[in-house]
Every structure is written in structure tokens, then in C-alpha cells.
Amino acid sequence: GQQLNQSPQSMFIQEGEDVSMNCTSSSIFNTWLWYKQEPGEGPVLLIALYKAGELTSNGRLTAQFGITRKDSFLNISASIPSDVGIYFCAGPLLSGSARQLTFGSGTQLTVLP
Amino acid sequence: DTAVSQTPKYLVTQMGNDKSIKCEQNLGHDTMYWYKQDSKKFLKIMFSYNNKELIINETVPNRFSPKSPDKAHLNLHINSLELGDSAVYFCASSQGSGVEQYFGPGTRLTVT
User: Between residues 68 and 107 of chain B, which touch chain A (CB distance below 8 Å)?
Assistant: First the structure.
């Protein structure tokens, strides 16, 4: 089946540093989504990408839809303590009329003061 | 206002019991989902449902069944609970076949 590989698995960074993480697949995706999950909460949608090559920002977050359609990247600039959480990439599975999502394994981000 | 809500937040029960988790969304969406997150934080789709179609992930045991009394609710019933069912279960919703899904806060199920 379709699998999404995220890297790195975890990151420890100093407050103020920039962060980069990526997601790759052996299959082509037509949409890439990035979610953040904080402890004890559900995933929250950060950015949705719909077009190969697309670069989209949401505050200090910037995500890119890879030109090959097999990867996506998420950057966080000037990290702050509230950026702590697990960041997931996701893409739609083709399953009937509903778009079920397949998720990557996540990148656990820790921001040190 | 909470967009997608789930109850209970925590559920502790014994093996063999039957339990339900409730989900409600006030976003006006017509498609709802259930996901399971295991101890390694891996999220996996279990079901998707709208008023036309129920899609079941083939790996989900038939002890799990979604029930939707109306468009705003999709409850998860689990029969004969097993230790391996312990996980966090998330409800989500979207509009039509849209991929932008909005998640509830999760229900942590512990089977002893």
C-alpha cells in the first residue's frame, strides 16, 4: 500500500532555530497535508498543498509540494517553545468516494529554551 | 465552540466488555472518519462514512462498527474488547470528498 516516510524521526533544537523536515513516498500524491499534534490533543491541520511545486506559508510555517509529487517539505522559522509537538504529513488514499488519509510516522519536535 | 468533539476522553474497561465512543461535529460536514493511533503514534484510518457509503479498512476487526444516527454524529461501537484494542481513537470530519480533515481531541481506551 501507499506509505509515507518522514524524517527525521525526532529533533531537538534551540529556541530561535529554524527547522526542516520532510516526507517521501514511493507513490505519487495529488495532495499533501501537514498536521501538528500536541500532547493529549488531536492532529490540527497546518497546511494543505494541492499543486506540484506549490509553496504555501502559514505564519512561521512554510510547506512545499515536491515537483515529483512524491515528496513534501515543512519548514518552521524562528522556533518557539509552543512549536513542540509531533508533525505529521498525510496524503489521500484512493478509496471509494471518501478521501481517507494515510499518515507518515511523524517527526517529534522538542524546542529547548 | 468545539468543532469535533468526542466522549469520553478516557475509557478504562476490562477484556470482553462492549463499549462505545461518541463523536459529534458542528462543522456541517457530511463525511466522518475514525482513526486509531497506536503507542508509537502511528495514525491509521479505520472507517470513513457519509450518507452514501461506508468504507471499512480491511484490517479492522468486525468487532468494531461505526453507527451514524445523523450527519453530525458517528459513534464507534466495540464488542468483546481485547488488550490490543488499547489505543487512542480519533474522530474526524470533512466536507464531501475533501481531503482537509478536522480531528477531535481523541479518546484514550485502555483495556485491562
Answer: 90, 92, 94, 97-106
On the question of a cis peptide bond just before residue B8, with omega within 30 degrees of 0, the verdict is yes
User: Which of B44, B52, B103 minimises the CB distance to A42?
Assistant: B103
Name the one residue in this structure whose C-alpha cell is 527547522: A19
A76 grid coordinates: 518552521
Sequential DSSP letters for A64-79: EE-TTSSEEEEEE-S-
Q: What's the CA gap between A88 and A101, in Å, rounded? A: 11
- Across the interface, of A42, A92, A96, the residue whose CB is closest to B106 is A42
Amino acid at the residue B77? H
The pLDDT tens digits for B61-112 are 999 999 998 889 999 999 999 999 999 999 999 987 678 999 999 999 999 9
Please check whether residue B24 is in contact with residue B5, taking contact to mean a CB–CB distance below 8 angstroms.
Answer: yes
* CA angle centred on A17, ends A55 and A3, rounded to 5°: 50
